[in-house]
Amino acid sequence: MHTIGFLVNPIAGMGGAVGLKGTDGQVMEATRRGAVPKAGDRAREALVLLRVAPVHFLTCSGPMGENTLRESGITRYRVVYESPDVTSAKDTRNACRAFRDEGVELILFCGGDGTARDIYDVVTDTVPMLGIPAGVKMYSSVFAVNPEAAAGILLTYAESPVLHIRDAEVMDIDEDEYRRGNLRSSLAGYAKSPYLPGLVQGAKRVFEEQDDELAKEAIGRFMAEVMRGTPDTLYIIGPGSTTRAIADQLAVEKTVLGFDAFLDGKLVATDLNEKDMLALLAEGKRARLVISIIGAQGSVLGRGTQQVSPHVIRKIGIENIIVVATPHKLSETPVLFLDTGDRDLDGAFGSHLSVISGYHVAQRKRLGGPVTE
After folding, report:
1. pLDDT tens figures, 70-103
2. How would you label 30-47 residue by residue, b for 16+ Cβ within 10 Å and e otherwise?
3. Could you tell me if 16 and 113 are in contact, meaning their C-beta atoms sit under 8 angstroms apart?
4. What is the dihedral of CA 333, 354, 238, 131, to 10 degrees?
5. Dihedral pair phi/psi, residue 293, rounded to 5°
6. What are 170's strand-pairing partners?
7. Residue 61 has pLDDT above 80, yes or no
8. Among 142, 273, 304, 372, which has the minimal tally of Cβ within 10 Å of its Cβ?
9. Helix (H, G, I), strand (E, B) or coil at 329
């Protein structure tokens, strides 16, 4: 029987839907805005699939692990770290020291990039780690594409004496700069992490070649024409340099790392959270969502886009979602994936997405993910 360390960062992802672009140091503000913890629910989606797996878990008390294991119907666990009522990065690090000292084969965690970094600070490359995505950004490549994929990797591991391990980037994002609209990332290091094709994400890459800039301009011109031609349609445009090129063509300054709303080619609302979007959509106008992908990683929805909740997507309609990306970014991103937090909604997108990649040019890209029953 395999021994796996399991922990949950209870506050991971709370800042996403309310537009805080991260939760580090922002728990009270996220709570004030109406955010509720969701990491335990995300972890449970994976654990319920592991109830019959030959795995014994070492974990933390309460919401840092024990509660989720019990609620998932798993009884094969032992608490090796007593967590306080209010947890912090210090508790994650202390728990991982306990896991390491107990000789776990793998650390399964639920959180975001900050959680991955805290684990890496303790175990470096001595203990493999695998993330169930629950944070706001998750640019590191130690994460499965969604909770079911994490379970799929562990089930494969349980049936095999060996696990395919790769070196995976752990990215450190400056959240204060991120909230100011600047994406500043650094490489914390390379962790050991299990890998199965299609079930784990890559690290974010930034493409800045000259041809890529020309492609962004072409996408921007095309989308600006579309928007001007549909003056009664509300456009909610997501973060990134490709979507910013659309605003440039409209001669409007856009929030680089947030969601903004446009009507008749004019900016009507900036840096929207889920509540803001739902209020705009309640006005009854036809709406479209324009969003780009994370380069090489392949995420369309679910990484840094928690403001666009399943409720928002259903209000807009899948048929009104427009995905844009440059040819270079698409060439480095063979498979796209969705992780909205609603399995049925992800499946409703089908097997492929059409991605606008130039002026009147689109590519058809495959949507990947785990094969589930």
Report:
1. 999 999 999 999 999 888 999 999 999 999 999 9
2. beebebebbbbbbbbbbb
3. no
4. -40
5. -110, 160
6. 189
7. yes
8. 372
9. helix
